[in-house]
Write a structure and sequence with these properties.
Largest sheet: 4 strands, parallel
Shape: globular
Number of domains: 2
Distance between the termini: 13 Å
Number of helices: 9
Order of helices and strands: EHEHEHHEHEHEHEHEEEH
Structural class: alpha/beta
Helix content: 25-40%
Number of strands: 10
Radius of gyration: 20 Å
Length: about 300
């Protein structure tokens, strides 16, 4: 796949990520970047919305130093679903117009401490093209199947155990995340031969416990594979969801259940589920080669 031959030497790519206080996400995104560069040969940098470095503006500066006469930047949000971050925050952090009015701050006058207020301005005279998020692509089903098979390979039960599958995403007060999860699950359900469902960690329903209880009660399950539909490990995948699944004792769940992200404040409902069968919990998507192919194809689609 010779993507680099189709692009001007004056083009760079920013892989846009949210940023995390935990090291796992940064490690994953470094691997994603390295695989993307190896596959495409394109000058590429990660740009974090907040918390982590480099920032989006910092990523632009790195590309300017790396690419002679840089005149175009392709910004690729490595997000599964659209939302406030992809439609409002990232465009503004790139110096572009938001794609919709911000429900958090309709007049656009953010508080002085808001991350959009304190972020450095992008200093770039060339073209910046912002791509859409990944969305419910068919290729994600291949990653989900891989994670299910990896989990089942570790099962202590034999192949005859009555098994169910639950896809889990974060959840949002807006419809975007639920629309993504519903569309992806509708595709998955058509390919899945065992009982299945999906649930949200917070902010919208059905919740993980609600979905598990319904799935177990209706199908008398002995084993459940809970697949986290997240790009990288973080607090949600390593603490919140495992706590809901009953993997962590209360004293192991050290961070507060109440917190704010700057764009929403909320309290997690982390009530553990009651299921006496086996629960398998594979890793999220991470830097899977299929994800890299998706990102490369998204860039190619714009050539």
């Amino acid at each position: 796949m010779d993507t680099s031959s189709k692009l001007s030497n004056n083009t760079g790519v920013i892989l846009v990520s949210h940023g995390s206080t935990l090291p796992y996400a940064e490690e994953v995104f470094v691997e994603i970047k390295e695989k993307f560069i190896k596959k495409t040969g394109l000058a590429t940098e990660i740009g974090y919305m907040k918390v982590s470095e480099p920032t989006i503006a910092g990523a632009v500066e790195i590309l300017k130093d790396e690419v002679d006469d840089l005149n175009k930047i392709i910004a690729l949000p490595v997000f599964l679903a659209p939302g406030i971050h992809t439609n409002i925050d990232i465009p503004q952090l790139l110096g572009l117009e938001p794609l919709e009015v911000d429900p958090r701050c309709p007049d656009g006058n953010y508080p002085a401490e808001h991350y959009l207020s304190i972020a450095d301005d992008v200093d770039f005279d060339g073209e910046i093209e912002l791509l859409s998020c990944i969305g419910p692509r068919d290729e994600l089903l291949d990653i989900i199947d891989k994670r299910i098979n990896e989990a089942l390979a570790e099962s202590e039960l034999d192949d005859s155990a009555k098994t169910g599958i639950l896809l889990v995403t974060h959840g949002s007060r807006l419809n975007y995340n639920k629309e993504f999860a519903t569309a992806l699950y509708n595709k998955f359900e058509k390919t899945c031969e065992v009982p299945s469902s999906f649930g949200f960690m917070e902010l919208c329903g059905p919740s993980i416990p609600e979905s598990i209880n319904k799935l177990v009660d209706e199908n008398d399950l002995e084993r459940l594979v809970v697949v986290p539909i997240f790009i990288a490990p973080g607090m949600h995948t390593t603490h919140d969801i495992p706590h809901i699944l009953g993997f962590l004792e209360e004293h192991e769940h050290e961070h507060s259940h109440s917190h704010g992200h700057g764009d929403h404040d909320h309290v997690h409902d982390l009530t553990p589920v009651e299921f006496e069968g086996e629960i398998l919990y594979p890793e999220p998507i991470k830097a899977d080669d299929i994800l890299i192919d998706i990102l490369v194809s998204m860039v190619e689609e714009k050539l």
